[in-house]
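To close the section, here is one more complete example, presented without commentary so you can practise reading it yourself. The ligand is pyridoxal-5'-phosphate.
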Amino acid sequence: MIEFSKRLKSLPGYPLAEIPTIKRRLIEAGVDVIDLGAGDNDTPPPPVAVETMAAALRNPALSKYGFQQGLPEFRQAAARWVQRRFGFTFDPFTETLPLIGSKEGLSHLPFAVVNPGDVAIVPEPGYQAYIGGALLSGAESYIAPLRPENSFLLELEQIPQPVLRRAKIVFVNYPNNPTAAVATSEYLERTVAICRSHGILLAYDNAYCDLTFDGYRAPSIFETAGARDVALEFFSLSKSYSMTGWRLGFAVGRAELVGALTRVKSYVDTGPFLAVQKAGAAALDHSEELVAPIRAELQRRRDAAVTALQQVGFTVESPKAAMYLWVPLPKGVASAAFAKQALEGSGVVVLPGSGFGPAGEGFFRIALTVGAERLRLAAERLGSVLAATP
Ligand SMILES: Cc1ncc(COP(=O)(O)O)c(C=O)c1O
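Output:
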């Protein structure tokens, strides 16, 4: 028989793993399922990306291996976007790297810095690629709980010194999935300072930087002095452009750090499809006009969902960014039982906080992936589940 590795066995259960099967069963039984599970918006990808992709498919040169170099045009568009969006210059060829979605880059990054016995600091609740990459690379993961009393900030100062001394990488993500928390510049300064003093690679996941509301602007980690020494920043085309399935993102940072990730990737993948990179370059070049309507729609959805959830008895704050509501449950209500009842009893897919690790218990996550009307209906149904919960 085949004995699986300790690393494989150490991976926690993936929160989205069973939902598609249950969902299919319910739909077949005629249930009107409202899926607020995955962070996958119902809006279509931008026409400019679709049209560029269609033309790119007819160009045989773009059907070749892209390797890590990829399409120069995409690297240049990414570097131009960073310049427009944040005002920083990164060299498109040595300080920018195309990724097969940012998940791919984030999960491969630990391989560049982890030796046996080293620690990777992972937020909990948090995006699963962090712990996945950490454990698969052989790191010992140190779970940093994100708690409401700390505004869901990963506070390196609260981590014991001996752990910090063994830490090689930390994953930091604001605007945050799943809590929708945002980071202040003062927090980012503290975090960069500790990473610098301990030589910890700061993997800054900025997948939601453009999905911001009420005039809030999410910063780049590179706005913090000294960040270039220790940070790589990850961006995604998935959420801002509704291109989740296209698998395209990119990392920026100083050449040595980008080079280390490039080296890892050159052994495990051949880069994103060149035609997708061509389409991604077109999307990035039209970023401002494409993202504004998505942002406005998400803000409408946020307002509708927050109001409706409050009306049916949930205590939920209105987040400044991302595409999620992180909703507290009354004390003693287990999030897995609540999510199961929401799905099987009322056809609403939400993710239980415990699916993001024990520190997520006491909450559930709603993704704002359907229109305001459907969100109101979902909130009503969730209110009935809450009212029926002992
Ligand atoms: C925090 C965070 N980072 C990264 C990603 C992955 O994005 P991509 O589709 O670019 O791999 C997600 C997707 O849900 C996410 O929530």
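Once you have examined the tokens, check your reading against these statements. The chain has a mean pLDDT of 96. The chain has 14 helices and twelve strands.
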